[in-house]
Amino acid sequence: MIIVVTGASSGIGALSARALARNGHTVYAGMRATGGRNAPQVEAAVAFAREHGVDLRPVELDVSSQDSADAAVERIVAEQGRLDVVVHNAGHMVLGPAEAFTPEQLAQLYDTNAIGTQRVNRAALPHLRAQRDGLLVWVSSSSVRGGTPPYLAPYFAAKAAMDSLAVSYAAEVARFGIDTTIVVPGAFTSGTRHFPNSGHPADEAVAAAYEERYAGLVDHVAEKLADITPADADVATVAEELARVVDLPKGKRPFRVHIDPSDDGGWLVAEVGDRIRSEFLRRIDLGDLLSPAAG
């Protein structure tokens, strides 16, 4: 299959692109600034492809730009004649008290984590709809429905927005033969650049006020998350599970799959929510939207 992965310069995105390529797919590793700060990641992807004899191709793809998303998809379709799978992985995390982030910072976070998926969909879905076939994979977060420690509110809210968008899209593309899977990682405190590269609030005065009552909370959360996560937890398992799901037959893929070694309970809430969604669609005679049309 022909696959594009957004946010594939590092972390889950890079690992997923490599896992999919190892499984024999042609994978375009989408990343921004391929000629700038991500040039080393481009070189690493090319080296991986050469070393392992797989088809892994870096492509310039900035989810904050519709022109970039359009150009990336156009290049893929021009080179391959089709596009089969879109992996929505691009995201960014921030740490700090919610009040200390400016509205502009929240808007930027929503843009990266949620609105960026809309740009990529608008570029890719016309091709998938024309084919009457395809797969959307959305990389969500267990925080959408599970444990939510303080000081991560803007990130949690943005991922929840993306997850809700994924749920609605699933029904709206089903009759075009397009499948949907939502991959839900838990809090992996190592193996990604989420925590080290996380953003911080712009309003330092408000942040300082919170520090008076919540001194050391960021370090406390990081320490306790590490404590409840098994020592052998490996973020590569997320990529492996994502690749496994992609390889399942159309219509047999799970709607949602959790990979959460710390077990924050998100899977339980999601199970109830997804069941209610299924039951409601059947009640209003739209049960066919729960799986992709044959073609």
Structural summary, described in words:
The structure is a single chain. With 295 residues, the chain is of the alpha/beta class. The chain contains nine helices and seven strands, in the order E-H-E-H-E-H-E-H-E-H-E-H-H-H-E-H. It has helices spanning 11-22, 39-52, 66-80, 103-131, 153-173, 204-213, 217-228, 236-246, 266-283; strands spanning 2-5, 26-31, 55-60, 85-88, 134-139, 178-185, 256-259. The model has no long low-confidence stretch (mean pLDDT 94).
Quick tags:
single chain; 13% strand; alpha/beta; 295 residues; 7 strands; globular; seven-stranded parallel sheet; 48% helix
Write the layout of secondary structure elements.
Blueprint: E1 2-5, H1 11-22, E2 26-31, H2 39-52, E3 55-60, H3 66-80, E4 85-88, H4 103-131, E5 134-139, H5 153-173, E6 178-185, H6 204-213, H7 217-228, H8 236-246, E7 256-259, H9 266-283
Parallel strand pairs: 1-2, 1-4, 2-3, 4-5, 5-6, 6-7
Helix pairs in contact: 1-2, 1-8, 3-4, 4-5
